[in-house]
Amino acid sequence: MSLATLAQYRIAVPGSSYGDAEAQAALDAATSLIERYCERTFTSAAYASWIDSRAHTTLCLPNYPVTILRSVCTSAEDVMSIYNTSADANDAIATVDNDSLILTVRGGVNDGTSVLTLATYATLALLGAAVTALAKGWTWAVTVECAPSHLRPGSTGGCLNATGYLQGPDESDEFDTFDGNAGMLTKSSDWPAGRAAVFADYTAGYATIPADLQFVCIQLVNNLLGGAAHAGTIQSERLGDYSYTIGTSASSTTSDPTLTMLAPYLAILDSYKRRGLQWH
Questions:
Q1: Domain of 130?
Q2: Residue 277: inside a domain, yes or no?
Q3: What ranges make up the beta strands (E) of the chain?
Q4: Which end of the chain, C or N, has fewer beta carbons within 10 A?
């Protein structure tokens, strides 16, 4: 969803000769530029995923402000067993990665890799049925039902004639303080460090996009479509009850075309750039 609507663009740029399809494509592109720079998504949405964490007393959720926090969990439990019986294979492995279940058989008639998109299946039982339908020697059993999209990234290790386990989130952890506006949770002891170390289920983002972000989005659209005589040098604009004035941009010294385009608006965008402790 774009940060500004087509109707807002038409009001702000009444003389635009571009059609709705072109203008909407530019709104989407401008939104993508802004969100990539700020490293966060602004429109309100539900999130449920395993996130990276550092060994620190503060955990930073990737998106904020957080309006609903359903659970935060640092432990996992086995939710689905998986086993491969290919008689002439050399190895078999199951991996959860990039929101997919990746099933690989090496050697024999079932040799190859199958990829199942987790979000396609509402339950682990339905995911298991899709695994069976592959007819690649895989068998499975659900031990604890959970949403397939909640499976923890990682590998089962070898599961040729051996049982491997896929894991899902366990019970929610306790914490001491929660700052929803910043998406930060603090407790007395450190959060675990590592990739996919914490599972977070929450809703975050703005129900109404702040006016200054809408302003930047529309200005970028104007630049992308060539509507500004001098891209990046517009000094003022009014959007509804919001008005903003910027100085004429100086020549950019960066070779990054994205930063060059965003340069006049960094005073606004830097205040929204993702903050907090990040895992490296």
A1: 76-169
A2: no
A3: 45-53, 58-60, 66-73, 76-84, 91-97, 100-106, 112-117, 138-142, 154-158, 164-169, 177-179, 184-186, 194-204, 236-239, 242-245
A4: C
Could you say which of 180, 204, 228 is where a domain stops? 204
- Summarize pLDDT for 201-246 with one digit per residue, the tens: 999 999 999 999 999 999 999 989 985 433 443 445 555 555 555 4
Is the pLDDT at 278 greater than 90, yes or no? no
SS3 at position 69: strand
Residues 69 and 105 in one domain: no
DSSP, res 160? B
CA distance 147 to 143: 13
Kindly state whether residue 112 falls inside one of the protein's structural domains: yes
Assigned domain for 188 exists: yes
The b-or-e profile of 77-107 (16+ CB within 10 A means b, else e) is: eebbbbbbebeebeebbbbbeeebbebbbbe
